[in-house]
Structure formats: C-alpha cells, structure tokens
Amino acid sequence: MMTLPGPHDIVRHVLPNGLVILVRENPDVASVVVQGMLDTGSLNDGAGQEGLASFTATMLLRGTTTRDFQTIHELLEGSGASLGFGAGLHHTGFSGRSLAEDLPLLVELLADALRRPSFPDEQIERLRGQFVTALKIHEQDTRYVAGRMFRELVYGDAHPYHRPPDGTLESVSGITRDHLVGFHQQCFGPRGMIVVVVGAVSAEAVCRLVEQHFGDWANPAQRLPQGLPLVPPLGGIVRREAALPGKSQADIVLGASGPSRFAEDWQAANMANHILGVFGMYGRIGAHVREKLGLAYYSFSRLDGGWGPGPWRVAAGVNPTNVEEAVQSIVAELRRITQEVVAEDELADSKANFIGRLPLQLESSEGVAGSILSMELYGLGLDYLQRYAPEIEAITADQVREAARRYLDPAAFALAIAGPDRSAAQ
Amino acid sequence: MADSTASVLRHVLDNGLTVLLKEARTAPVISWWVLYRVGSRNEPVGKTGISHWVEHMLFKGTERFPAGTLDKRIGREGGVWNAQTSFDYTAYFETMPAHRIDLALAIEADRMTNALFDPHEVERERTVIISEREGSENSPTFWLHEATRAAAFRVHPYHHQVIGAMDDLRSMTRDDLYQHYRTYYNPNNAIAVAVGDFDAGHMLERIEAYFGGIPRGPEPPPVLRREPPQRRERAVRVEREGNAAYVYAGYRVPAATAPDWFRLALVDSILAGASAPGGGGIGNRTSRLFRALVETELATGVGGGLYPSVDPYLFNVLATVRDGRTPEEVQAALDEEIERLAAGDVSQQELDKARKQAKALFAYGTERVTGQAFWLAFAENFSDHTWYEHYLDHLAAVTLEDVREVAARYLRRSQRTVGWFIPVRDTAHEGGPA
Description:
The complex is a heterodimer of chains A (426) and B (434). Chain A has 426 residues and is an alpha+beta fold.
C-alpha cells in the first residue's frame, strides 16, 4: 500500500516575511514540480478594469528588469522547463516543471518574474492583441457565453463574482502600463504566498534556494484581501438565452452558488454533487440525460468550492430541439437530490470512490503538489490525508440531502442557454 | 529511476494476442490497455464513424457486466477507465489501484467478444454520437480540419474525420456495427499492455488465464487504398460564422516507421515547438513560427504537430490570425519561415536544443503509468514498442545534414494542403449546418 503524504514527509518552512514553503521529496522521478499561489486575484480588478489581474499575471514572464521576453523563454524552453502564471478570483497561481537539476533556474525565474517585472510597452500591446482576439473568439463560443450569462444571473451586479475574470473588449482595451505597474505594486508580495515543491530534490536545498530568492522580499503596501458581500437570493427561476449564428448545439448551464471550501458542510455537498453528476458516467444526471434519454454527449454537475461561494452547476450540450426536455430532466434530478435521502449503496459507492481514488490522484508529483497546496491554502493541516478516510466515512445520507437542499433549489436556479437560434429552428 | 529504464516483456499468446508488460514499482497503481488495430482508416464510405460508435457500444454492456454496472464497479475501486478512437486504432484502458487490477482484466477479456449491441442501446447512442458531432461543429477549427483533411486525402481513408459524416451516423444500423465489431475485435488483432506495480511473470499468468481461452479470429481485411502522389498545392477556404480567421497548412509526410519520421520530428520541434511522446507541452515561444507569426503580431498563437501514423499522413501547422490582420499576411510569413528552413538555414545549436527538450519531455512522460502504457500500445500498433522505448536514441542519430535534407524534401508547396477559415456574418440563408 502507498504512504500518504503527511507531516512525516512534508517539510513546511515559513519565512519571516510570511512566505510558506512546502516540500515533499520524491527520489523516484527525474523531475521537479513547483506550484504555488499569491494573495491577489481578479477581485482586485478595479471597476472598469476587469481583466487587470489576469493581464498582470500574463505579463510577468514578458520581461523583467534583467531579462527580456526571448531570454526568459530561451532559458525555460532550452532546458525543457515550463513556468506559467494565471489569475483566479482570490489568488494568482503559478506552476512550473523542470528536470531536477534545473530547479535553481526555475526558482530564479519565478523570483525575477514576481519581484522585478518590467512591463515593456511593446509586450503590453502584443498581449492586448492576443486577449482581444481571444475575447472575440469567446463571443462565438457557446460554452463560454452560457457560462458568462450563468455567472451574471447567479451573482448579480453587486457581487464581484459576476465580473468576467478575463475582462471585456472595452476593459482590456483601456488597461495601461500604469495600471499594470500599480496593480503589481499594490497586490504582489510575500504575505500569503505559498510555494510547493515536489520531486527529486532535497527539502533542505529547496528551502535554502527559496529563501535566497525571496527572503528579502517585502511589500508594506501589499493590499489586504477584501471581504465578500452575500450572494443575493435568486428568488425563483431566472433564465437567459443567447442565439449564436452558425452553431449546431446548445450549451446549457443550470445551478446556483455553492459552499466555499471552508464551509462546514463542504464534504457533504461535495458528496451530493458526486452522486448528482460525477460518479461513474456523470452520476444521476449522466444516467438520466445521456444514458436513458440519449440527449447529450456531455451532461455533468460541478461544484467549484474554493475560497468563496463558487458556483454549483449542471452543464449539458444538447441538440436545440432537446433543450426543454434536458432542462426538465436536470430539474427532476435536483428535486430528487434535495428531497430524498440517497440510497445507502449509492452513498457507499461514492465514499469508496473518494477514498479509493487517492493512489491515482497521488501517483504524480503534480497530484501530490496540488494536494499539499490545498492543505495549506484552506488550512486543512498537513495530516489531512491521514484524517481523510474517517472524515469521508462519517458523512450520512441526511447530511448529503441537507447540504444539497441548502444550496440547490429546484424552484430557484439560474439557467443560461447559448446555441443556435431556437425560434427559427422550431 | 528504475521504472523508466526497466525493459519491456513482449509475449504473444497462442491466440495471437500481443502482450507487453513493464514493471514500474514507484506508485501502487497499474494501467491496463487493450488496443485494437482498427480505426477510421478501416472504414468505407457510407460507414464513416463506425469504429468510434463501436467503441461507445463497448460501454453498453455484456451478459456478465450489464450496461451501467461497470462505471460503478470501477468507481468504487477508485479507478478510472475510458477509451479513444483514432485513425489507426481503438483503445480501451483502466488505471486502477494495483490490488484491484483483476477487474480490469476481466472487463476487457469479456468485452473483446461478448458486447451485446442491444438495439435500443444502439438507438440511444446514435443521438449521443450525433450530439458529440454537433458539439464539435460549434468550433470553427472542426470545420477547417474536416475540409483540409478531405482535400489532402482523396483516396486514402484518412480523408474523413474519426467522428464520421452526419448522414452515415444517421443511416448505420445495429447489424453494421456488430459486423464491424466481429471483424476487428479478435485477440490476433489486439495489443494488450500493462505498466505499473506488478510482477511481470505473475501478470502474464493472469492475462493468460483471462484471455487465453478466446479463440483466434479470421485476419481482418487489409486497407488497400493508398493516396496517389500529390503534384501541386491544394487549397481550401471555409467560410462560416465566426470572429477570427485561421490559417492551416498540412505537408505530406511518411509513416512513423520511416527513418525520415524522426528527422521530421526535429524539424517540427524547431519550427513549431518541442514535443515528445507523453511529455505534454512546454511553451513554444522560442520556436521559429512563434517568432515569425506571434512576435510580429500577425497571429495570436501557432502550433504544429507530427502524428505517428500507420500510413503516410501530414505535418500540420495551425495559426490563429490576430484581430485586425489578414490570412494573406499570416500565410506569407508562414511560407517565408518554412522556406527558410527548407533552404537549409538551420544550426547545430537548434538541433541540440530540440534534443534536450525531447529528453526532458520524455522523462516527464515516464512518470505516470497511464501515459507509458498508452505509448507502448500505440507504438506497437504503428511500428513496434521499441519505437517508443528508443525514441531518444532515434533522435540522437539524426544529423544536421539529415534535418536539412528532409526539410528540403518534405516542406514543399507542391506537397501541402493549405486551408483558411474565413469568418463571415450569418450564412443561415445558405442552408444550416450538415
């Protein structure tokens, strides 16, 4: 049997400036994986500057005070390494990989990018053109459009989760170098930063290396995270539909806001979601919409969790003539999961999967690093995996129903549909 | 790193089933693949998409494991399973905690011959597969790839997409599907691979126990239609609703068994960015095409790929035209860059870099059992498993002169198909999608 990562083999080291380093050695591989987070994200985008956090994150590897774009990428690609940054709502994440011998290079470039980005004008315009093209492509992407409308319906104008993290054509066009430099100065710093390293390296050497590059980083101006307003109740079924010319399939997103990873009923809700639309071939939703009715190639449910009340949603892609039937089937499953307790064997199946899938999840260095990052980010404790099986086993069918009922309501949900013009098709 | 250097045990059972086993004892998991030598390459006109549909039907139950029961069995054990259909193969896999692998062996042995193809399930799956095609049709590049492949291959069945033509998906019958299954799903037309935490001798005994009793079948019919030589450039233009233009070029290249293939793999790395079996991607921002197209602000992205295939296929390049620029500009810059390489402008330094990248990517690829097992099965199908195991040795044998020679010989306009996706506003009045 496998040894689960835990306090016995994860080294955790906190620098005086707040940066947390976590390392797990894995001598069986040739490579090393680096993952981590900083305490800023698109929630710090100002009004009218949607996309700023994402723009800033993508600019980090486009020039620093000591290296230009081609030099950075020649160093990375020339050694078969990769490094990337991306902004989420609350955090900006990074991940990289290299052969073990190239870890010093990876950490040096990570520090260079985070601490000394130069935001060259030429690169700003180049990247802006890429964002604009991508946003225009998204405008014609049924899944993207349905997802955006869903977010707007669920969170409303007053909640920051309604804002598009990639920005809009208008906001991205208006972002200036001053905005990027200002965002970096105010939002990037070592407080709340996490670096996880897993691979064929010594923990002691990793801690020394990270300390060498980040130990003297300080940013007294680093902005504190803001609180979130409550998500306004939906009150009923709210629905929006977009017709996109030239499309064959309609994409449906249906749901509401769900629990954060910190919620007490997180695991019960996660279990309800698993039964609803994940287990086996997309759970009950898949069994009904795909297997029984043959309506869709994909139909599943997903619970985001995360730092705040992320969405809990069902998504499906169906022929435009089948939209209403698919929606009815999905709502019938919401009714069932919120009103009836799940059968004991169904619950046992999902519990067995939650526990039994650990060997596969933890096979790779990426899987281990992701798991350690979650432990740190959500304060789960380094012994989380040791406590995990009993915690899952203790979930009851009543708790699953209660969690589903707290967040999902078959009479009050958001429904977004993007696809061919259905008025013409019927 | 014992796992990445362990040798592969190859054994052919009496019924013709080829078995490849590789011990990798670093994590308590095993990946188990059964690959059949059948894909869209084996499909006649009128039955396009049949291999992929048959793949779906193998998830629809046998007498022993009725429809819907296996998803739960696999899930309970903490495993994953799936399948994929490509031009040259259809492959099924389970990756399981090591002590649960018997279930995977039992499933694949059972459905090699006992899939039911229940008529009601066939009809339900028809609409699911049509939905799968409709989902792809929502993407502009699907239409571009369908059109360019059809132009590049007039005779050879690489002509059509794996998903198949919509009318074939509407007209094929349960008996068509079942006949296809019985023709190609035999132990002598299959490759079985396990990689993971097991003892190879013991694993072979268990495979023998599950599969040894399945009788050998008739040899499936060979694919006889070869693509005639191409004499001049072919061009297609797809006009559909959209907001961005795309430029595609596909150059005819040999099958994966040709020595030129590895030389072209290095050409691909230098032009479009590093690649190696199972390694996933690293960036391609220092590749020649990125510099020529993206750094010049003509395109927002560019990628390329050389796909190892049984019969001669294509080296593909696809660029997304930047908003405000034109396909003509992107095509001109693409041509200039490719012709520079074809004229011999390439350095030893670039070649060495491509090899170092491949070495790193290959190492990443050996860290998971699922990817390794796939590549062993995949390579055994189009060549043999040593193609994959000795991949880096093959690259090491390539000289700068080889790279120049293949670039000059294959990267010629007369040997390519170019395709442009031109976004237009609403064409509904010209008739809807197929």
